[in-house]
Amino acid sequence: MVNEQEKQNESDEYTLGRDYVASASDGFDISDAQYPPASWYGSKTTLSTLDIFKPLPEELVGKYDVVHLRFFMTVAKDSDVGLALRNLEKMLKPGGHLQWVERDWLSKFPKTASETDNAHLQITAFLHKWFNEADLPTHFTSASLNVLAHQHENPLPMYRKPWNEDNLIGMQAFGHKIADQGEREWFRRMHRRCVEEVARGWYNAGFEIVVVVGRKGVEG
Question: Is residue 120 classed as helix, strand or coil in its secondary structure?
């Protein structure tokens, strides 16, 4: 038996699903090197290259109802996040929504570490000075986005280990952005040790997923 509330929930889910199927979506990355095969997505999805830190192409200004960003902080410093958010805000139509999903990797680690600590403690202590997921709502506000939600979610246990491994890929990309040669070489050595630790079974069992949702003003 289905009560009236359950019927309404089912109706809402159907409407959301119907609207999603009817919608078109565009995906962007800095390079096309990791695009999935075209057979994995339908004709209503397009993939293009975009550097979000550069001036936004005019054809993308005010184009989207919803913009979604995921697992981006490993390739951005705090000083870059504001620039990225200003471009993301420009991509939205008036009243449009931005959702940013991020792994809260750093808050579970201390901000300092010694040379005798494991590689993950050392490398995350270094990363603390570059960015902080907890500052995302402040960045949203600075980009003229009204923060509607700021939530912390626990990922399913089955995702923790692969997402830890995925985080190592992001760390590797981040290492290329370090300007100081000495720090860059140290980071690469620590990253190799982190890979070895993960191969022996190490992973961060305590991280959470952070979700921030902002809305652009209806006046644009």
Answer: helix
pLDDT tens-place string over residues 90-139:
999 999 999 999 888 777 788 899 999 999 899 988 988 776 666 789 99
Of the candidates 178, 183, 219, the one whose C-alpha atom is nearest the C-alpha of residue 62 is: 219
Residues with Cβ within 8 Å of 92's Cβ and at least 6 positions away in sequence, in order, are 62, 64, 65, 67, 98, 216
CA distance 207 to 71: 13
**Strand blocks (E) in 4-52:** 25-29, 45-49
Sign of the torsion formed by the C-alpha atoms of 139, 28, 21 and 70: negative
**How far apart are the C-alpha atoms of 132 and 107, rounded to whole Å?**
8
3-state secondary structure of 134: helix
| pTM, 2 dp | 0.75
Residues 69 and 63 sit within 8 Å (Cβ to Cβ):
no
189, two tokens:
């050595």
